[in-house]
């Protein structure tokens, strides 16, 4: 009886799993199709043309290489900043006792009370009216500020207080022995933080960086809001939607769906491979406030 | 205060100083500014703010078009919350078994989480193409009439919900899997000896020991509904006739289509107020303190 229930259950789950992977399969098979064949295909696109050229479409896009470089450069930049700031501040909040520590921590933490959605327009106004940038005068008028200037892609989110907190929790768990031993050996603060503690924080930092790398690769929203003009070199997460829109047509019959799906599939492949490689690190091996995850 | 303590104070504040300035400029000042702008009808050009009034807020609650947006957001949110929680709990339970097949399912169900929402929305767009999209082709094969997805409020709601749940469920499942795996074997065995099986075991042991996790899932799901954007932007465009418009999409449109920074700010402040309690509860629960 129990076995029968299990089998039925697994059949149902398998059916749902098919729905889960259907968009990926659809994109893959559709990319193999041609516009003519695609128009007459069923639930699964007619892939018999084996039109592998659609998978290469993304590489032929005008700014593909530059855009990819932008994504990689931006990812590296934010990885370095995230590691540096969260370890440095994590250590300050974990191991140093100083006046006003609680207050300043709460001050930083108050940003967590505000959801990302609510900060989009405030940030836009700040960028657009930033003094002495992009043609703006000292009171921020006359130009467009940071909007559509490439530096805008490198000035926000240099440290995240929740990352700092997570690293801090790991540092607290490590204990003071290492710090004291290093002090006796004559190491200074910078050496203690980055030579003694940093190597022991690899698990939590790996977790943070995985999320960051994926977020950077898929980031569409930031450029849509703050750096969208044709003159700016955009990371792939946004540029890919521009590539796809070239094949889109308001006349639905004539849109080049196979090319759209080929570009989309190639863009989704790296994060999926990345996930399979680092799968074990996606689940946090620590718990916060009784939530194990 | 010892000399050593004084020195520590100085070093700590020296390290923190640039971060305090950076954080104040990039996070705190804009929020204060938005709060102020939400009481104006500022267009974003010049510094002509006009008089301060509650007009924007009054309009959000009086104007049926704006009220509809709030309603849409909550309606979407409620359905997504129930589906995320229900399916996440159920599948998290099933996938927490230490078998190979469960591990396979966990991997596959997580794929949607790691890909771009914008690109997935564009793929769904081709699937929902009324002429050659696969779903209409299937319907026609089964002898039905093709559906004009984009012109049906119901179907646009359906697909936005489908897409958001499809995209996020893997993350919820992973959380529940971790929750179910962390329940101690001893406790379950003891319960078995006492004769607690089936739903009793679920109700008295499993659910209480995952209470925090469940609250966490609910809070994050609720906060997530305010950031639904890409599916609305790419698939429904808020349509037909604004019936699937959500708050995030309106914040964007208000600022960049209507050039009404005042209203856009007011909606941002509204989101802030609506989620403040949630984020506070979340912080309390995650035990974020020194």
Characterise the protein shown here.
- The complex is a heterodimer of chains A (293) and B (290).
- Chain A has 293 residues and is mostly helical.
- Chain A has helices at 2-31, 35-39, 53-60, 64-95, 101-109, 116-128, 161-174, 177-184, 189-197, 202-218, 221-226, 236-247, 257-278, and strands at 287-288, 291-292.
- A two-stranded antiparallel ribbon of chain A has the order 1-2.
- In chain A, strand 1 and strand 2 form a beta hairpin.
- In chain A, helix 4 crosses helix 7 (161-174).
- With 290 residues, chain B is mainly α.
- In chain B, 74% of the residues lie in helices and 0% in strands.
- Chain B has 13 helices and no strands.
- Chain B is flat, with a radius of gyration of 24 Å.
- At the A-B interface, helix 1, helix 4, helix 5, helix 6 and helix 10 of A face helix 1, helix 4, helix 5, helix 6 and helix 7 of B.
Please report the two chains with the greatest interface, counting residues with C-beta closer than 8 angstroms to the partner's C-beta. A-B, 95 and 93 residues
Task: Give me the Rg of chain A, rounded.
Answer: 25 Å
Counted beta strands of chain A: 2
Order of helices and strands of chain B: HHHHHHHHHHHHH
Helix content of chain B: over 70%
User: Runs of chain B with pLDDT <50, length 5+?
Assistant: none
Q: What is the global morphology of chain B?
A: flat
Oligomer: heterodimer
First-residue to last-residue Cα separation of chain B: 22 Å
Give the helix/strand class of chain B: mainly alpha
Structural class category of chain A: mainly alpha
Determine the number of helices of chain B (DSSP H or I, runs of at least 4 residues).
13
Helix content of chain A: 55-70%
């Amino acid at each position: 009886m129990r076995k029968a229930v299990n089998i039925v259950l697994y059949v149902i789950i398998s059916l749902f799993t098919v729905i889960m992977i259907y968009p990926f399969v659809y994109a893959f098979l559709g990319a193999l199709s041609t516009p003519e064949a695609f128009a007459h295909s069923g639930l699964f696109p007619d892939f018999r043309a084996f039109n592998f050229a659609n998978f290469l479409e993304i590489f032929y896009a005008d700014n593909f290489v530059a855009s990819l470089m932008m994504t990689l450069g931006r990812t590296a930049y934010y990885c370095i900043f995230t590691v540096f700031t969260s370890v440095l501040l994590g250590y300050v909040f974990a191991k140093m006792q100083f006046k006003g520590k609680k207050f300043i921590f709460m001050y930083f933490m108050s940003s967590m009370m505000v959801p990302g959605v609510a900060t989009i327009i405030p940030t836009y106004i700040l960028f657009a009216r930033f003094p002495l940038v992009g043609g703006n005068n000292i009171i921020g008028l006359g130009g467009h500020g940071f909007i559509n200037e490439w530096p805008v892609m490198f000035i926000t989110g240099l440290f995240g207080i929740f990352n700092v907190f997570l690293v801090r929790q790991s540092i607290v768990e490590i204990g003071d022995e290492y710090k004291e031993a290093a002090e006796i050996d004559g190491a200074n603060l910078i050496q203690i933080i980055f030579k003694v503690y940093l190597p022991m924080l690899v698990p939590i930092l790996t977790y943070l960086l995985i999320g960051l790398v994926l977020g950077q690769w898929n980031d569409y929203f930031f450029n849509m809001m703050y750096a969208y003009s044709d003159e700016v070199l955009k990371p792939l997460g946004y540029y890919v939607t521009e590539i796809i829109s070239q094949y889109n047509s308001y006349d639905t019959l004539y849109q080049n769906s196979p090319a759209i799906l080929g570009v989309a599939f190639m863009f989704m492949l790296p994060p999926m491979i990345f996930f399979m490689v680092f799968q074990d690190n996606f689940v946090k091996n620590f718990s916060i406030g009784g939530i194990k995850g | 205060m010892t000399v050593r303590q004084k020195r520590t104070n100085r070093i700590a504040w020296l390290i923190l100083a640039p971060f305090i300035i950076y954080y104040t400029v990039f996070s705190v000042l804009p929020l204060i500014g938005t709060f102020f702008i939400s009481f104006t009808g500022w267009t974003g050009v010049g510094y002509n703010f006009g008089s301060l009034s509650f007009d924007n807020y009054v309009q959000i609650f009086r104007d049926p078009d704006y009220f509809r947006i709030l309603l849409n957001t909550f309606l979407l949110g409620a359905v997504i919350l129930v589906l995320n929680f229900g399916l996440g709990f159920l599948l998290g339970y099933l996938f927490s078994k230490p078998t190979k097949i469960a591990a396979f399912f966990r991997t596959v169900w997580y794929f949607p989480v790691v890909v771009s929402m914008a690109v997935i929305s564009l793929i769904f767009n081709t699937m929902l193409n009324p002429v050659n999209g696969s779903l209409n082709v299937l319907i026609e094969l089964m002898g039905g009439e093709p559906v004009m997805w984009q012109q049906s409020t119901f179907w646009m709601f359906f697909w936005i919900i489908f897409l958001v749940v499809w995209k996020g469920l893997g993350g919820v499942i992973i959380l529940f899997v971790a929750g179910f795996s962390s329940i101690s074997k001893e406790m379950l065995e003891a319960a078995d000896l006492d004769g607690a099986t089936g739903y009793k075991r679920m109700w008295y042991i499993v659910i209480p020991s995952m209470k925090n996790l469940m609250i966490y899932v609910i809070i994050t799901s609720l906060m997530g509904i305010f950031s639904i954007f890409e599916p609305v932007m790419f698939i429904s465009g808020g349509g037909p006739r604004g019936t699937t418009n959500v708050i995030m999409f309106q914040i964007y449109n208000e600022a960049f289509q209507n050039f009404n920074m005042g209203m856009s700010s007011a909606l941002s402040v509204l989101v802030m107020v609506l989620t403040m309690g949630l984020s506070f509860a979340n912080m309390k629960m995650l035990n974020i303190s020194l």
